[in-house]
Design goal:
Layout lengths: L1 E3 L2 E3 L1 H26 L5 H21 L11 H25 L9 H23 L5 E7 L3 H12 L5 E8 L20 H8 L3 E4 L11 H9 L3 E4 H9 L9 H6 L7 H37 L4 E7 L5 E7 L24 H8 L8 H5 L4 E3 L6 H10 L12 E3 L1 H5 L6 H17 L2 H17 L5
Parallel strand pairs: 3-4, 3-5, 5-6, 9-10
Antiparallel strand pairs: 1-2, 7-8
Amino acid sequence: MIRIFNHYVSRTGFILLLFEMFILHAAASATALLWSGSPRGTADASMTGMLFALVNVFAMSALGLYQQQLREDLRGAMARIPPAFLVGFVLMSALMEVMPAVDLGHAASLAFVLGGACVLMTRLLLFTSAQSDILVERLILIGAGALARECLELAAMRDGPRRFEVVGCVPMPDEERCVPVAKVLKPGESLLTLARRHGANELVISVGDRRNGAYPVRELLDCALGGVRVTDAAAFFEREASQIRVDSLQPSYLIHGGGFDQSFMRALVKRSFDLVASAAICVAALPVMLAAALCIVVEDGGPVIFRQDRVGKNGRVFQVLKFRSMGTDAEHDGKPRWASAGDPRVTRVGHWLRKLRIDELPQMFNVFRGEMSFVGPRPERAFFVEQLGREIAYYDVRHSIKPGITGLAQVRYQYGASVEDAVRKLQYDLYYVKNNSLFLDLLILIDTVQVVLTGKGAR
């Protein structure tokens, strides 16, 4: 993994993206030069090639082809490429209409065929390489308790180009074993000797209690000096899952772990991004919003906009705006409740508004008023905030920044409807609060497009 603006991205995925941008640029530039028939058009051809590459990489990103935790086989990945290039073709055609300098002419089909073939070959080579042990990283876990079991589960979930193999766990004295017996390494060797014998690239410290005298500080130092990477479990989850785990989190990790950028420059960049993104989507989605309002009125004649008190930055309460997706008497008894799968309170129109996330579009006006950001933790109702704040450690940390229309938890986790779901989503929210940047906002925006297209996580 490499870190770009505080966010961890897959090194393999990043190199893949750059390589595919290069081959797409080359395919479109060559096609544009052939179409113009003149070497004097080199500059225009290069600009056309760059836009062609950016548009198609965006389309592939929106369909999840660069998502590092995507678990699917070669057939599944290949099935996503034609739709991605179809989206790219539509976007590129629109660009050629409004930008005269961007011109592939009648050779546009050739550029897409050539670029698509190159991407297919690249993906085929990547998946072939992934089947070997070249891209497998071998880990040793220090500890064999509950935290080690969670690290094992995370390592097992990782698939695709970058995979992990946990060669074993080193148990600590007086620690309850929670991992399979087959994964427990026999004592008797130093950690450095053990790592070298098993070819381990990294040691992950998954020990809950580090205050007893059995904690191998000196041996871990020898490993670090001997070239074996030593990583804390909290950092391992942050790096590999974009989560900050609350069940094993030490306050010192938040205090000394860096991040939490709330400088004037970050606030200025974020506010500018909020206004530009919200304005652009408002203009593009205006016909959709008008159609949604008409459908709501036709269905039951009730109010179009639903207002509800939510908790924002620093605990301030504001009214969030949404298209009404439930009946007018959804909480006739006055008792707040979470939405559930197949919730009978959701109307027929509301079902599709929620599935396609259209019900969230009026929140652009909350962004214009400065109550929300485009990207951030989702705002919750005061009733649930009070309950969750009592039951979940560090829950109030998410209120240190403005809530968002979309967020990391929304694109990585399904709809939350319980305390357990709230804990899972909080772990993504804490990661965002700690590592938020314009780069991460753009990645979340692209992932949001995928969520809208697939209807993932809606209720």
